[in-house]
Write a structure and sequence with these properties.
By secondary structure, the chain is an alpha/beta fold. It is built from 18 helices and 6 strands. It is globular, with a radius of gyration of 24 Å.
Length: 461
């Protein structure tokens, strides 16, 4: 049960001004955001800030978005004097920047700190540790126990869990726990290690990347190319030192395992045959692990985009038995996802409440899904609002082109996506027409010069 003495819900401007004044008295706070598929497009609805004494302010942005401007929350988050401790700040930063024009300043990201420390100890592709696993190394995590199960439950049951005018005791407990856990032990110990190892330069560079890459395509692309270069180097070095007899189970080096997992299948042909063999084994292992998790969790399993992406890779396997097994497993995941969509959404759900993973599934359904009376009405609605959201995004770009004229800049991701809408089969006519209209206007304005190649991004309907 939530402790009313250790937190305050702030849902009006006057209380926000007082809360900000209180927070400015301290030099370090812990911050986290919640929302509906939080990110550049996913709506931010709640912002939590913990003081060093454990008191937490819960700013209900869903009720009163003016807390950022009139409530002075924006100026606080951009204040250079206060250190804001986050875990994995990238989605929070994208939502704050793109929805409320807040650019976070003086951020200490504990995930980024652990990443830099791991690199200093020899890792080339460190993992990004989740909140529970990272904090377990540095402090007692009793307050986070059971969190993942609770998250999975509400994710499948309520697509608007964090969009509430009043927060439930469960919501308050979870929101407070996510920020309280970061102070003081986790922050102090990671800060101390960065100082001892003289890693502040590398850390600040990593944080700057985390703050920008989810909303700035150029930053994302540059880091992607850097990571792919590292992966290629790891595999080249490995292949020169190992014979074709090596098996995936023989490999203990986590960097090599991660490189095999992350290297795109289309690039494997650039390496000796050993890498191709191990890539197949890596895909097979991933599928086996997914199937085991699906068996253990059954309908409580949460299908994610990375699961479908991995299965699509396995389906391209030259081994017919493996390819067919991947196809069957994908059908199971799609059935679970379809059931989840119908359960947690309704016929009034806004398009921006649907995650990108869910939209990718919905938009691959037959175009008749949007009109057929035989289709579940919720699924029919989700299909239509998903397609409409893509149409609206293109229209927004068209209007921006008309406003800015020669100052207009179109990122390569949006350009390739529009081209795909025109050429891909099964695209609804209204989306295809809108994309063609926009590209015609770009052509007339002389904006369709060939872009530089960005081999890592894939788009599809």
């Amino acid at each position: 049960m939530a402790d009313v003495e250790s937190h305050k819900v702030v849902d009006n401007v006057a209380d926000c001004v007082k809360a900000v004044d209180d927070l400015l008295r301290g030099s370090v706070v812990a911050v986290n955001c919640e929302g509906i598929n939080l990110g550049k497009k996913g709506r931010l609805t709640l912002l939590q800030v913990a003081k060093q004494d454990g008191f937490v302010y819960l700013f209900n942005v869903f009720v009163e978005p003016k807390v950022f401007t009139e409530g002075q929350l924006k100026s606080f988050l951009e204040n250079k004097a206060t250190t804001k401790v986050f875990h994995a700040c990238s989605k929070d930063s994208a939502a704050l920047k793109c929805q409320y024009d807040v650019m976070l300043v003086n951020v200490f990201d504990v995930q980024a700190a652990q990443y830099v420390i791991d690199k200093s100890e020899g890792r080339q592709l460190p993992s990004h540790q989740n909140l529970l696993n990272l904090c377990r190394v540095y402090t007692d995590v009793t307050s986070l126990e059971g969190k993942e199960e609770v998250q999975a439950k509400w994710y499948k049951a309520d697509g608007a869990y964090w969009a509430k005018t009043e927060l439930s005791p469960e919501m308050i407990d979870n929101a407070c726990a996510d920020v309280r856990i970061l102070l003081p032990e986790v922050y102090d110990k990671l800060k101390g290690t960065l100082g001892e190892k003289e890693l502040w330069g590398e850390f600040n560079e990593r944080v700057e990347f985390e703050l920008n890459y989810r909303w700035n395509e150029n930053v994302k692309y540059d880091k992607y190319e850097e990571t792919m270069t590292t992966i290629r180097n790891i595999l080249h070095q490995f292949s020169t030192k190992n014979t074709s007899n090596v098996e995936l189970d023989d490999i203990k080096n986590e960097d090599i395992i991660q490189a095999l997992k992350q290297i795109p299948t289309r690039e494997v042909g650039q390496f000796p045959g050993t890498v191709m063999k191990l890539k197949k084994q890596s895909l097979k292992r991933g599928m086996d692990e997914l199937e085991q998790a699906l068996t253990e969790k059954a309908d409580s399993f949460v299908p994610l985009g990375r699961h479908f992406g991995m299965l699509d890779n396995v389906k391209n396997s030259p081994d017919p038995a493996v390819s067919m097994a991947a196809g069957r497993l994908k059908v199971k995941l799609e059935e679970i996802l379809k059931t989840d969509l119908i359960t947690k959404y309704d016929e009034t759900t806004p398009g921006n409440y649907i995650s990108e993973d869910e939209k990718r599934y919905v938009r691959r359904l037959p175009s008749s899904t949007g009109t057929s009376s035989a289709v579940n009405p919720v699924l029919r609605h989700l299909y239509n609002v998903s397609i409409d959201s893509y149409v609206e995004e293109i229209e927004t770009l068209r209007q921006k082109l008309r406003r800015e004229g020669s100052r207009f800049r179109l990122n390569h991701a949006d350009l390739r996506q529009c081209k795909y809408y025109i050429s891909a089969p099964g695209v609804p006519e209204r989306l295809k027409t809108k994309a063609k209209l926009f590209l015609d206007e770009l052509q007339d304005a002389g904006y369709l010069a060939a872009p530089r190649r960005r081999s890592g991004y894939q788009f599809g309907f």
